[in-house]
Design brief:
Elements lengths: L1 H17 L3 H21 L4 H13 L3 H14 L4 H13 L3 H14 L4 H13 L3 H14 L4 H13 L3 H14 L4 H13 L3 H14 L4 H13 L3 H14 L4 H13 L3 H14 L4 H13 L3 H14 L4 H13 L3 H13 L5 H13 L3 H14 L4 H13 L3 H14 L4 H17 L5 H18 L9 H13 L3 H14 L5 H12 L3 H25 L15 H16 L3 H14 L4 H14 L2 H14 L4 H13 L3 H9 L9 H13 L3 H14 L4 H13 L3 H14 L4 H13 L3 H14 L4 H18 L5 H20 L5 H17 L3 H13 L4 H16 L6 H6 L5 H20 L11 H14 L4 H20 L29 H15 L15
Helix pairs in contact: 1-2, 2-3, 3-4, 3-5, 4-5, 5-6, 5-7, 6-7, 7-8, 7-9, 8-9, 9-10, 9-11, 10-11, 11-12, 11-13, 12-13, 13-14, 14-15, 15-16, 15-17, 16-17, 17-18, 17-19, 18-19, 19-20, 19-21, 20-21, 21-22, 21-23, 22-23, 23-24, 23-25, 24-25, 25-26, 26-27, 27-28, 28-29, 29-30, 29-31, ...
């Protein structure tokens, strides 16, 4: 009876518990306990009473007493299955899965179909990570009780743990059929879908779970992982943050939050997240590695290295720890130590794309480009989206001269990251190198080159000025320089120099930019300051004995950057006319540079400017010895050979280059000049036409072709080419001069006068142009004006006035041009009937040491003047002579005195008025001497006086006019030299200036190796 009373209270308590009446159920359980205690006082061996008492204690949260009660029940009845089952539940409540499992196994030994024991044994096995056995238990539980949704649910979790996600989905589906609002089943489905890569379905399931249970930290964590896998990092971060609000002590979720923040480039927040995770659990190696990556990305290399070392201490075989340490060492310039760290990481079997990328960068810095290319390829095999490796691969290919393949690598990088600064810049560098390498560089590639640098400048210029690092300022300078925007390049290099005062390279680039801006004095000063900084840095290096990874220049050995500096100085000094200093600078550059071509080219340019063509030829030959395919050096060599009048050798050099060479119009043009001088007109014609076909704007070739047409008598063809040449280069004096000569031949004298006038306005220092202008005036006067008119004489005298000034200012080495000027002066004065001036100028012309080509017509014209219209007065011959003046004057005086004395000595003279007095005086003198006697020698005296008079008048007699008239119009002024483009020197110098920039491919920042 007492037993029934106790059970009644027990049943009432259970009923109230099911009705969620916790207080009422607890009071009834207390009364039931008192009742069962009373029963056991009467019958202490009542196994069932002990069983009920234990279960009541379990409900009252007194598990230890409950276990004692169950043990007493089993002591009195070992076959009491419910007591053993309840004992197992109590062990489970106390989180003692092994004891619980033992109890449930003993239940199942007596009742294999006990659904509760199967289910809870599954839970115990799951807690013990014996997942296969747990799965079997849940499966059997679900088979014996298909309505047990928890059995289905936990079967699903066991299947998920075992990676059997398709079967897990089926189990979760059964759970949801039984209870559609089971949030755990929806979470399980989300996990299973995520594991199967079915992220959209996973997200839908997770959203349903969170709809049912918004306060589920696990649900928000699952959603975060799903969104992260979908690339929706911001939303994933928000999900993890909600999870952490619900479960702030979850260190792993803090770790995951840090990774997401790192992936979003919010590295400062990521660092805080990793540090907070480590505060909760300092043993989390992943958090230490994440913290190291965040510090690396923030550029705090030394702190990052310390963090990675902590991770390595905790796990010496941690590849990520070793790789991270290698990244820090690489960023700190400790290349050898970085290499060791990477090798050690790889020795543990970790074929990590990031580690391989770092190792590839080490080989790249060691200039082992083939090995670097191989390593970057391996890195991409493990991670085809590794941006650092793609850039490294492109750079290595660029260094190996494989520019087309490098372009493909950069294109892939751009597909992965459209705004990648290194990809944009390096693509431009590769195209620039390709342009210099390939003979048929296409216009579309030229456009792509321009676009690449412009896009880089646009993207890099998007940062606030204070956030553009010194490296990016340097690369911006290179980009502007490649685009020819030297003022902007100077500003960029100046910013780089201000931000990195320890490096002299931006200062060197500033100097080169000033050269390109034609500010040679400033350039020289800037380069000298940079050189002083280099020397100071070198002295510091020697005194402190820095390791071999130091970036300081080593003056004792090869040093490309110092070689560039010295070459820049050489170009500046050359432009300033300090040729010897320039040669010294280039010689120094040759000793310091690994590639001597720029220095040799500079020396050749200096010698060319000095007119030392033999030395210039030697310099360009030296370049061709180093690089036989150097087109520009070959063109310069041909130019020098033409200047040396060695046209056959020039032709031999140029014939090798005119087929599909870079800028083939220039070599073809020079070939035309050389063949023209060799009078090989057919080849010259082909060469000129080829040059014009290659570049219709090449006015030098058009001038040469016009000269050739003129020489061959094709005046119309010559005028056509000259019109085209003038339209391309209106300031070219040679074109105007040649046009004037052609127009003279076509008897268009007025047009010729205008052409020569414009030519003189363009080139006031060319003496030949003045001669042609004067000659054109003469021809115009002869053709258009009456010979005896005042205008005719005025035009000739005006032309003569210009030539008079020209003849005075001619230097001694210009005897040929002076002789022409004097001849034309004689001609013009003669035609203007100023015969004495004409004769004087012609005599002066004949006294010069010059060619017979001028002397012959000058002598003929002078002879004609002397024999014809010239009538010199006796007193001019005797008393105003240009030659032997003193002798002639003395002779004239003695003859005149002797004649006058003899006449006065005649007896008749004494009777004449006025002269009687001097006659008497003379007679007296002669009488005293006794030498004169007119009566005896009168006839002889008369004859002698007549003879003396004839001597005085003899210079007035002249020969008759010669039968041969001089062909005055046949002698024309000497034509200017065929216009060999001396501007090639300037173009060559500009090319050298641009080559001094020598932009290197941009390396991806080591910070990006700390990716999350």
């Amino acid at each position: 009876m007492n037993s029934l009373y106790a059970r009644a209270w027990y049943s009432k308590a259970l009923a109230l518990l099911n009705l969620k009446n916790q207080i009422g159920s607890e009071k009834n359980f207390e009364r039931a306990l008192e009742a069962f205690n009373a029963v056991l006082e009467i019958n202490p061996e009542d196994s069932i009473a002990w069983q009920y008492r234990g279960n009541i204690l379990r409900y009252l949260d007194r598990p230890e007493e409950a276990l004692q009660a169950f043990d007493r029940a089993l002591d009195f009845d070992p076959d009491n299955v419910p007591a053993r089952y309840l004992k197992g539940l109590t062990f489970g409540y106390l989180n003692l899965p092994e004891q619980a499992l033992e109890a449930f196994e003993r239940v199942l030994a007596r009742d294999e179909e006990h659904a509760g024991a199967l289910y809870y044994s599954g839970l115990a096995l799951k807690q013990l990570s014996r997942n296969e056995e747990a799965l079997q238990a849940f499966t059997r539980a679900a088979e014996f009780n298909p309505e047990n949704l928890k059995a289905w649910y936990y079967r699903g979790t066991a299947l998920s743990v075992l990676g059997k996600n398709e079967e897990a989905l089926e189990a979760y589906g059964k759970t949801l059929v039984l209870e559609p609002s089971h949030s755990g089943a929806w979470e399980g489905e989300a996990k299973a879908y995520l594991a199967l890569g079915r992220r959209r379905e996973a997200l839908r399931a997770c959203e349903k779970a969170l709809e049912l249970e918004p306060a589920s930290a696990a649900g928000w964590e699952i959603q975060g992982r799903i969104l992260e896998g979908m690339g929706r990092k911001e939303e994933a971060l928000s999900a993890f943050e909600k999870s952490l609000i619900l479960e702030p002590g979850n260190a792993k979720n803090r770790l995951e939050r840090g990774r997401l923040l790192g992936g979003l480039d919010r590295c400062r927040e990521a660092l805080e997240a990793f540090e907070s995770a480590l505060e909760l659990d300092n043993s989390l190696i992943e958090a230490k590695i994440g913290k190291g990556k965040a510090l690396l990305t923030l550029g705090r290399y030394q702190e990052s290295l310390g963090t990675f070392k902590e991770a390595i201490e905790a796990d010496p075989s941690s590849p990520e720890g070793l790789g991270g340490a290698g990244n820090c060492l690489l960023a700190l310039g400790k290349t050898y130590e970085a290499f060791q760290a990477y090798e050690r990481a790889l020795s543990f079997g970790a074929e990590n794309s990031s580690i391989l990328s770092g190792l590839g960068e080490v080989y790249y810095k060691l200039e082992e480009y083939s090995r670097a290319l191989e390593i970057f390829g391996e890195a991409l095999r493990f991670d085809p989206e590794n941006l650092f490796a793609w850039n490294g691969k492109g750079n290595a290919l660029c260094k190996l001269g494989k520019y087309r393949e490098a372009l493909e690598a950069y294109e892939t990088l751009l597909e992965l990251d459209y705004e990648s600064l290194p990809a944009r810049y390096n693509r431009g560098v590769a195209l620039s190198r390709l342009k210099n390498q390939e003979k048929d560089f296409e216009e579309i590639l030229e456009s792509q080159l321009q676009t690449a640098f412009k896009k880089y400048l646009e993207l890099s210029g998007g940062f606030p000025e204070g956030e553009i690092g010194d490296e990016n300022w340097k690369y911006r300078g290179f980009a502007f320089a490649e685009l020819g925007e030297y003022k902007e390049a100077f500003k960029a290099f100046d910013n780089a120099a201000k931000r990195d005062s320890e490096s002299s390279f931006p200062q060197i680039c500033k100097g080169i930019t000033l050269i390109c801006l034609r500010k040679y004095e400033e350039a020289l000063e800037t380069l000298e300051d940079a050189e002083e900084a280099v020397n100071t840095a070198s002295g510091t290096e020697k005194s402190t004995k820095k390791d071999k990874d130091s970036g300081i220049f080593n003056l004792a050995g090869k040093n490309p950057r110092l070689g560039i500096l010295r070459s820049g100085k050489g170009l500046a000094l050359d432009a300033l006319g300090r040729y010897q200093d320039a040669l010294d600078a280039f010689e120094s550059a040759r000793k310091l540079s690994e590639d001597e071509k720029i220095a040799c080219s500079g020396e050749g340019l200096v010698f060319a400017h000095c007119g030392e063509w033999g030395k210039a030829l030697k310099a360009f030959d030296e370049i061709l010895t180093l690089d036989p395919q150097n087109t520009r050096a070959s063109v310069m060599k041909a130019f020098v050979l033409i200047r040396l009048q060695d046209f056959e050798k020039a032709v031999a050099v140029l014939e090798k280059l005119t087929v599909d060479e870079i800028n083939s119009d220039l070599p073809a043009c020079l070939l035309g000049f050389a063949c023209f001088r060799l009078e090989d007109f057919e080849r010259a014609l082909k060469a000129y036409r080829k040059a014009i076909d290659s570049n219709p704007k090449n006015f030098h070739a058009r001038n040469g072709l016009a000269e050739l047409y003129f020489r061959l008598g094709n005046s119309r063809g010559a005028l056509k080419e000259l019109e085209a040449s003038i339209s391309e280069a209106p300031d070219n004096a040679f074109s105007r001069n040649l046009k004037g000569r052609v127009e003279l031949e076509e008897q268009a004298c007025e047009d010729a006068l205008e052409s020569f006038r414009r030519a003189l306005a363009l080139d006031t220092e060319d003496r030949r142009l003045l001669l042609w202008d004067a000659y054109a005036r003469y021809m115009y006067a002869e053709a258009s004006l009456e010979e005896n008119s005042a205008r005719f004489r005025y035009m000739l005298l005006a032309a003569a006035g210009k030539l008079e000034k020209e003849a005075i200012w001619q230097r001694s080495e210009d005897n040929e041009l002076k002789a022409y000027a004097l001849y034309f002066l004689g001609l013009f004065y003669c035609r203007a009937r100023y015969f004495q001036k004409a004769a004087d100028r012609l005599e002066e012309c004949l006294r010069l040491e010059t060619q017979a080509e001028v002397k012959k017509p000058a002598a003929l014209l002078l002879k004609n003047i002397r024999a014809g219209p010239l009538k010199p007065a006796l007193w001019e011959w005797w008393l105003d002579a240009k030659t032997n003046s003193l002798l002639k004057k003395m002779s004239f005086g003695l003859i005149f005195l002797f004649i006058f004395s003899l006449l006065l000595s005649h007896p008749a003279a004494s009777s004449l008025p006025i002269i009687s007095w001097p006659a008497s005086y003379v007679n007296y003198i002669f009488y005293l001497t006794g030498y004169v006697s007119w009566p005896i020698y009168g006839r002889e005296y008369a004859a002698f006086i007549l003879f003396l008079v004839s001597v005085v008048f003899l210079p007035g007699f002249r020969h008759g006019r010669p039968k041969e008239e001089p062909e005055l119009e046949t002698l024309t002024p000497p034509p200017p030299d065929v216009d060999i483009p001396a501007s090639i020197l300037e173009e060559f110098g500009e090319r050298l200036e641009r080559n001094l920039f020598s932009p290197e491919p941009m390396e991806e920042s080591v910070r990006n190796l700390g990716n999350f």
